[in-house]
Amino acid sequence: MCGIVGYLGNRNAAPVLFEGLKKLEYRGYDSAGIAVMERGAFSVVRRAGRVSELGGAVSLGGKCGIGHTRWATHGAPVERNAHPHCYKRFAVVHNGIIENEHLLREECRARGEAFSSDTDSEVIAHLLEQDYEGDLLGALRKTASRLVGSYAVAVLCLDEPDVIALARRASPLVVGVGEGELFAASDVPAIAAAGVRVYALEEGEFALLRREGASFYAADGSPVRKEPVAYDLEDDVPEKKGYRHFMEKEMAEIPLVLSRSASVGELAALAPSLCGVERVQIVACGTAYHSGLCAKRAFEALARVPTEVTVASEYRYGDPIVPPHTLAIAVSQSGETADTLAAAELARGRGALLLAVTNVRYSSLTALADFSLFTQAGREIAVAATKSFNAQLMLLYRLAEALAEAKGKKIHAGALDFIPRLAEEAARAGGKVRGWVPHFLGARAAFFLGRGADYCAALEGSLKLKEISYLPSEGYAAGELKHGTLALVDRTTPVVAVLTDRALAEKTFNAVHETYARGAKVFLVTTLPEYAERDEVVSSVLLPECDPLFSPVLSVLPLQALAYYVSIARGNDPDKPRNLAKSVTVE
Ligand code: F6R
């Protein structure tokens, strides 16, 4: 993860880099730093904590510089591990992981070189110093060839003032060309501005930013011509619009986001390819994995197409069997998740047709896929995924219907059209969870239970709670609890049961009973009024009725809200939970 930026122009670099880093904070926020080059020396400011801690750096002079916001992989999140890392002539910022760092560090140590941080990144500055023979691009190419792993790097060299050298492998990097100024960043929003043309570095490419302009090079050093990528400026202005947190704003947008899914034109283009699909393999991580679990039920119920869902980090190292006529679906809000990309590439390499379901039109995933469907959720800033999850569900449900039609199955089309309106009702009803918060504040752990599609919603509700409130929590299949985990339930345990399928409700309620009998405080998210008032239940959110197959898109709303309110009550920042980042571009 981590975010990197670079600037070369006529303005002071530090304030431009600082603004860019603030827009990249979603990639990591445990420490940050800026280095600028001025009169043959580096001025460096690094701080532990958020980008805002760098406020003092803004007064640095120098028109050429690089910056970094970190999500720690190697070395604790402290100032000496913050980037940029400087060694002799070089200053380096790096996003990625250098897997052979240990060997390289030993090599450098054997030459008598001392390190000042615990990071894998610092080794890049040492290698550059060894490889430099008066040619920055040559040195960077040579150093890159010695690195195993992933990187997007930006480099300054005191011997070549007013030059920023860039390299990319398996971590995103873009270059911006404006009027008399050049930018580099991990992502477009950090450099997007009127009149700035943006160019994306491809795998293995290099670039040099000089006052004369930006030049791009292939891995063998030959020049590369590039076309600018299109981007939407409007999309790139994250504002809270009166809400206290981005997460709150993003949850409020869910009904509108769901209504956009009706107009996914790309689905029609995909339809002819669906006829031959005999099985589906979904790969994803975290919340997107939960979308996959929900989608599996719809694919199998509506289209009767066998569907496997695998956590991407397991799929990529699992030697998966990909039979002919497999549709692989990679689900990823960011389109940049390293494990999802690797799993998707593997599935495609083994013969699957690869479909990307993502929220980012120009992402590494869309570049890899045969087809892409866009969730149209709008930019999601809060680290905890909310609206993108609901949007993924709607899109995958529509895909399930399209697959069913392609397979000649009869479906009751139209049920999904009501979902946006029902989501408004569900969001209103879900406000009641504020009253549940005190029961979670005194708890040591919480449980979320469900069966069928409700189990998938329970998993997501639990992930949301632990992610932003830091309260240990388990999402559990209601019938599985008694096989061990029930031992954890006591009088302090809040249990949230999701109950939207009448055919399964009584069975789920048996499990609820088993927790109630051990003193648990039971809360219900249900579409079934007959359960809402049961004696065992402390409080219920009654949702509007909908097809149980699609119910997670509604039942997750109160669960997202619950996580949000518990997080605030515990004094956390729900937009930036500790140890996490929005875009997980490392393994
Ligand atoms: C949880 C969350 C993460 C992401 C996961 C995958 O709220 O946001 O679990 O879902 O890191 O990210 P994407 O969807 O960008 O591939």
Fold and architecture overview:
This protein has 587 residues and is an alpha/beta fold. The chain has three domains: 3-236, Glutamine Phosphoribosylpyrophosphate, subunit 1, domain 1 (4-Layer Sandwich), CATH 3.60.20.10; 243-417, Glucose-6-phosphate isomerase like protein, domain 1 (Rossmann fold, 3-Layer(aba) Sandwich), CATH 3.40.50; 423-574, Rossmann fold (3-Layer(aba) Sandwich). It is 33% helix and 24% strand. The chain contains 18 helices and 24 strands. The strands form four sheets. It has a seven-stranded antiparallel beta sheet with strand order 3-2-4-1-10-9-11, with helices on one face. Strands 5-6-7-8-12-13-14 form a seven-stranded antiparallel beta sheet. Helix 15 (453-469) links the parallel strand 20 (446-450) and strand 21. Helix 3 packs across helix 4 (136-145) and helix 8 packs antiparallel against helix 15 (453-469). The termini are close together. The model has no long low-confidence stretch (mean pLDDT 94). The protein binds fructose -6-phosphate. The site of fructose -6-phosphate has 14 residues, from helix 8 and helix 15.
Write the SSE topology.
Layout: E1 3-8, H1 13-24, E2 31-38, E3 41-48, E4 64-70, E5 85-87, E6 90-98, H2 101-110, H3 122-131, H4 136-145, E7 149-157, E8 163-169, E9 174-178, E10 181-185, E11 197-200, E12 206-210, E13 213-217, E14 223-224, H5 246-252, H6 254-260, H7 266-274, E15 279-284, H8 286-303, E16 307-311, H9 312-315, E17 326-332, H10 338-349, E18 353-358, H11 364-368, E19 371-374, H12 387-406, H13 419-430, H14 437-441, E20 446-450, H15 453-469, E21 473-477, E22 494-499, H16 502-516, E23 521-526, H17 529-532, E24 537-542, H18 552-569
Parallel strand pairs: 15-16, 15-17, 17-18, 18-19, 20-21, 20-22, 22-23, 23-24
Antiparallel strand pairs: 1-4, 1-10, 2-3, 2-4, 5-6, 6-7, 7-8, 8-12, 9-10, 9-11, 12-13, 13-14
Helix pairs in contact: 3-4, 6-13, 7-12, 8-12, 8-15, 12-18, 13-18, 15-18
The structure holds fructose -6-phosphate.
